[in-house]
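Reviewer 2 asked us to include a model.

Predict the structure of this chain.
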Amino acid sequence: MVGNQEGLSMLREAFAIADGIGEATEAARACNNLIASLRTPVNDLEQAEEVFLAVLDYTSRKDVRSPIVDWIRLEGAEVMQRLGRWREAAHIVSQVRSGAVMGIYGQYYEITLALQRAVQGRYDESEQHLRRAEELAPAIRDPQAIAPTIGVRMRLLL
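Predicted model (structure tokens):
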């Protein structure tokens, strides 16, 4: 089994390899996974924020136009939410361009908005975003997608 630090090192190496061969989109994907890993399970939110800001700069300089950039924004928003910086998280989500797409990208976008609305006390809007998430990706049963949905539903029930 790979330990946390070894896994983080492998993701950094994947970034370096992809960048070295001119695969900026794949390099960005490695950083996206690095942000997610730093956020959970490592729980190093400060380092996750640093990587998030660095990879946004990288994707801008390299002119990456893949949906991975929006996924990175959603990961960054989640980091900001965990840091209690909800306004920054909302601003980051407002920059997501592919929120209406089908599948996991759209689902993650809608769940992120559902959480933000629930925290703001905008419960009906939160429910609408949860329904939209289910419509966009009805067959996805990945724990990574289910857990945040359950978290929002718990907030709404409270």
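The helical segments are 4-20, 24-39, 45-61, 68-82, 86-94, 104-119, 123-136, 143-157. The mean pLDDT is 92. We have added this to the supplementary material.
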